[in-house]
Amino acid sequence: MTHRDRLHLWGLLGPVTLFLGVFFLIPLLTIAVYSVLTPGLYGGVDWAFYHWNYGRIFGWADGIDEVFEPVYLQILARSLGLALTTVLLCLAICYPVAFWVAKLPQRWRMLFLFLIALPFFASLIVRLYAWLLILKPSGLLNTVLLATGLISEPLDLLYTPFAVVLGMVYIFLPFMFLPLFAAIDTLDAALIEASADLGANPGRRS
Fold first, then answer.
1. What is the pTM of this model?
2. For residues 20 and 23, what is the distance between their CA atoms, to the nearest angstrom?
3. Which segments within 20-178 are labelled E, that is strand?
4. Among residues 3, 8, 50, 76, which is most buried (max CB within 10 A)?
5. Which residues face 46 on adjacent strands?
6. Cα separation of 99 and 34, whole Å?
């Protein structure tokens, strides 16, 4: 890579790197530093190392000022479980769809990419409130299920793990789809065709 190429690369990556550093990495580092400082009297912190905050979660609390609370581990495990479920569902939905869209003609491909990006044109709060109206006991979903006779009383769907995962999958689907599509779209179709000629099944080819 020549010096000119390096300058061009830094010119492209520099603004994004600076933006992520200022608005993403620095806040995370600030939180990490504050998490090991001594709590202050009025909600602030004293600049002295204090690892008992994590002891309340992982079990090495001193038993005097801080007490181990198993509920924190339960909350952490539940959060990780919801996050993992969201990632796996987004991947299961987006991976085959990204392959399908990548094989479409150019005009249809642009249409589907526009539809994927369309939610970004509306406020996140408005979109989540729409799900609130759909999932509440008197909402659209329960009304349809009651009308068809599939249930005899409204389902309590709001404020459940199902509703949380549904909302998170809905939010993060575009963020999973777009990078996958960008990677799949650059694949050499000749290689996929060659693997099919050599006997690879559709799962192995993808």
1. 0.74
2. 5
3. 37-39, 45-49
4. 50
5. 38
6. 44
